[in-house]
Each structure stands twice: as structure tokens, then as C-alpha cells.
Design a protein that fits this description.
Blueprint: H1 2-12, E1 19-24, H2 27-40, H3 44-50, E2 51-55, H4 61-68, E3 78-83, H5 96-100, E4 106-113, H6 122-130, E5 132-135, H7 141-153, E6 158-159, H8 161-171, H9 175-188, E7 194-195, H10 197-204, H11 212-220, H12 224-236, H13 243-262, H14 268-275, H15 282-291, H16 294-311, H17 321-332
Parallel strand pairs: 1-4, 1-5, 2-3, 3-4, 6-7
Length: 333
């Protein structure tokens, strides 16, 4: 995020590069930087003749170079934005000659999303020398709740830790998707109010009590009553609670619990670092480790793999999600 702020600050101060390579597995920041360039490098009057958006699926590298070499009309510079540039991966090195000597009056922006750009390519080295290369890295799940809090703080909002975790558990690590939901909350909630799980439930439709986050916690505590209630809710609302999501999350939890058992140092900081989890969750692993010895955890991981196959129709046809969830609980507790 800090690197993005610096890029935006430099552009605002007039330090504009002739070529930008925006690449990486996380599209959110790529889109944000490209959008800022699109809206701020040229004035509204200049954009009509001097700004164009191309798509990697529809153009060749030669088309891009041809447009980039044009001179601006009644303006100091032109902007050429290439979206979906990852579709040009096989021929992108043909851009090297231009990248070695880019047109000083052109701002060429390459949005190379969902993948890492091969840094061994000549064109990458040329862009890095004469322009700017930015890699938008995918956040780990344990980093997302902090990202949510920082994003909201920057706009004058606060969110409880549990509410941020709930959003992460439900929406995953897709920052664009998360940002869309955060914008919805900002439209209906006042800044002075801390966003809570109840706000999430009422405005986004995520149940604060019946979700995978609470299920994982209930199973870890061996709280049969609570786990049964959640699984019954899942069985009655299969579209909102896909079995594959539940089984994946539980598999991750028990695989990490297996690692926990194998650790010599159970200091919370060490656990959070080794397991790649938010420190907020360490207590759940401590409790679960007492309830599930290593042998039992190994059995559960094996059961989860069997249930995953059954859920995909392998060796068990026409078994309902409700029956699979019941079998899951029996094998666990």
C-alpha cells in the first residue's frame, strides 16, 4: 500500500514516468494505479484526443508501439493504457526496443494482471531502467483483516476485530470484492460508529452466528450443540454456504493444527508466524490442541479428504449436503 501511495504522490507532483508496468497476482492495486493515471495525468479537455485504452486481447505489441509513438495534440503528453496486457505474454518482449527508448511525451501503462511478470525478460529490465515496475502481491489471509482496518481508518471509519475477521472469512482475499462491500457499509453507516458483526449481518448478509468462522471455533472447542446448529443452518441454506468452502476451511484449520502439535515453541508470536495466521486466532489453536491430540488430528485430515471426494460425487452419488455435514460432525466429535 505504501508503494502505491508513493506512485500516486509522484504523479501528483509531476514526476511522471514514460512507461509503467503494473503486474502481479492482486488486481486491486493495479486497477487503482491505472485509474489514477487515467483520471489525473491529463485534464478533461486533453483526454479526448490524447488518451486511449487498449485491450491485450484485441491488439498486438506493434499496435501498442504505433500508438505510443504518436505525438500529443494540443497537450504536453498523451496517455496509452493497455488493460489485460497478460494476454500478450508470448510477444511482450517485442516491446523491448520501445522500452529502451520510450517516447518522452507518452505515458504508456501496461496492466499485466493475475500473474507475475517474468523479471528475466529484457523488456522488464528496460522498463525498470526507464520507467517504473510495480508488483501487486496477493495478501495472505492473515493479512487481510489488518488491510480492512487500515482502509477504513484512512476514510475515518473503525471496525471491530471480529467484524474484520468475519468479512475476511466470508469474502476471502479478493481485495476488489472486499472493497466493494466496504463501500456499501460506508454509504449506510456514520463515521463515528464502530462497524460490528451485527452491521455486517444487516448490510452485507453474512450471518454473525452461522458462518464457517464460528463453525471452526465450535469444532475446536468440541461444542457439539453449537456446531450442530451451524451445520443444520448450512444444510438448510446450501447456496449461501457451499460444502466445498466449509471443507476447505476445516482442512486448512486441522492441517495447521497438525503443524501446531509438531512445534516445540508454542509462544503465540511463534505460532502466528509458523502457521501464517492472525495472532487473534492463536487461542483457538491452543484450545483445539487440547481437545484433539495429534493422532486424532491426522484421522480428521484423512476424513476431510474422503468427505471432499464424496462432495464431488466420487464414490458416493446423490448424497445431500446435509448428510455430508452430519457425517462430518460424527467423524469429528
Amino acid at each position: 500500500m505504501e508503494e502505491v501511495k508513493q506512485i500516486v504522490k509522484d504523479i501528483a507532483n509531476g514526476n511522471i514516468k514514460p512507461i509503467y508496468l503494473l503486474t502481479g497476482e492482486e488486481p486491486y492495486y493495479i486497477d487503482k494505479v491505472a485509474e489514477y493515471i487515467e483520471k489525473n495525468v491529463l485534464s478533461e479537455e486533453e483526454r479526448g484526443f490524447n488518451q486511449m485504452v487498449l485491450y491485450g486481447k484485441e491488439v498486438s505489441v506493434e499496435d501498442i508501439v504505433g500508438n505510443a509513438k504518436r505525438f500529443p495534440m494540443m497537450a504536453d503528453r498523451q496517455v496509452v493504457i493497455v488493460k489485460e496486457a497478460q494476454h500478450l505474454s508470448r510477444t511482450i518482449d517485442n516491446l523491448n526496443a520501445y522500452a529502451e527508448n520510450p517516447q518522452p511525451t507518452t505515458v504508456l501503462v501496461l496492466c499485466y494482471k493475475y500473474n507475475k511478470f517474468d523479471k528475466r525478460k529484457k523488456v522488464y529490465k528496460s522498463i525498470k531502467k526507464n520507467g517504473l515496475c510495480f508488483e501487486s502481491k496477493k495478501l495472505y489471509e492473515n493479512q487481510v483483516s489488518d488491510w480492512i482496518r487500515k482502509m477504513l481508518q484512512g476514510k475515518g471509519y473503525q471496525i471491530s476485530h471480529k467484524a474484520a475477521i468475519l468479512l475476511t472469512e466470508f469474502l476471502g482475499t479478493d481485495l476488489s470484492k472486499i472493497n466493494n462491500e466496504l463501500e456499501k457499509l460506508q454509504l449506510v453507516l456514520p463515521k463515528e460508529k464502530e462497524i460490528t458483526p451485527i452491521d455486517i449481518e444487516e448490510n452485507i448478509g453474512i450471518s454473525k452466528d452461522f458462518n464457517n468462522f464460528e463453525l471452526k471455533k465450535a469444532i475446536g472447542e468440541r461444542n457439539v450443540l453449537k456446531a450442530t446448529r451451524i451445520l443444520n443452518y448450512f444444510a438448510n441454506n446450501p447456496k449461501d454456504n457451499p460444502f466445498v468452502v466449509t471443507i476447505t476451511l476445516l482442512n486448512t484449520f486441522f492441517t495447521q493444527l497438525l503443524k501446531y502439535h509438531g512445534m516445540k515453541d508454542h509462544n503465540p508470536k511463534s505460532v502466528a508466524s509458523v502457521l501464517g495466521i492472525n495472532p487473534y486466532f492463536v487461542n483457538e489453536y491452543q484450545i483445539a490442541a487440547k481437545n484433539y491430540p495429534m493422532k486424532k488430528v491426522s484421522e480428521i485430515v484423512s476424513h476431510l479428504r474422503e468427505l471432499d471426494l464424496k462432495g464431488k460425487g466420487v464414490g458416493a452419488n446423490n448424497i445431500s449436503q446435509g448428510d455430508l455435514l452430519k457425517e462430518l460432525l460424527v467423524k469429528f466429535i
